[in-house]
Design a protein that fits this description.
The protein has 318 residues and is mainly alpha-helical. The protein is built from seven helices and two strands; from the N terminus they run ααβααβααα. The chain has a two-stranded antiparallel sheet with strand order 1-2. It is elongated, with a radius of gyration of 41 Å.
Amino acid sequence: MNEALATTEGAVLEGEGDQPEVMEGVEPETDSGAIPDEAGPKAEVSEGTDTSSAKGTAAAKVVEQAVASTDVAERDKRRERTVRTPKRKPNPRYVLIDMPREKRTNSRAGIKRTVRLAGKISQEMFFRTYPKVSDANYFLERIYPGMVLTRKGRDTAIVKEGFEAITEFWKGLYSDYEEKLSAMVMSVKERLESEGVDPAGVEPNFSEPLEEEALVTSRMDQRYIGLLEAVDEADGFISIAAFYDVYTPEEERRLQSEIRYGCLVLYRNTVRSSFETSLLLRTGKTSEMRRAEKEAREALAAKPEEGMQTEAGGERSS
């Protein structure tokens, strides 16, 4: 039996075995992607055919397959390294109990401070805006900076620049309003002096002063409470000036409305800055980038409608 196998193998190597007939002009059928055996019988090659290019293509395919298999093996090894499997199952005796949903809180440390506010505007702004302003200030000052600094990815630079712009705008609001209130108080004092009234002798006293405890959780909370106290001072001097007929009732109401509007602008933009930062961290895009994308989508959606209107107009004209 071994002699028969050796005889058959020698016949195949020497080209003596039976080979399928090849019709003239018809290529022999081969398996797709198979590499021809150079040691076997070679079919006739028509004129103008470059055998060296065929060999180069086959060699390139072999190299590509080897590289692909190597890449797959390296990727699998990396996955095995990154997937962290626990060494052992946790002991059920030491597993923590879930936190009750109704007891979950966002508690934060702060300093209790007694706030003395007397004017109607400052009291209204304290009760109606301070809780939300304090939350926004806390996140902008204590939470978001750490999230921005530890951010990883291609949008890291965009997030950092966007947060710096938001922070600059947010703190600039406080500085601008402080300067505005200070300038308003100085203007009222000058008007009182021009009317022969000594501003130092007419410090405003309010009929219903208020003392309230506030939890201060950030430096910007301190500034906001300081602004409310400055609002008290400005409101008091305006009322005294109206009492001495330095301001008419219409001028008094206009100045007080201006003070109240400034407080609302500060409140709205502080809360908005916190919201913009959360969107920036979630999407990795600034407000300008999101606005540009929205305009592009709207313009793209409007094009088919314009085309339909043009076609409808052409049909009516015809």
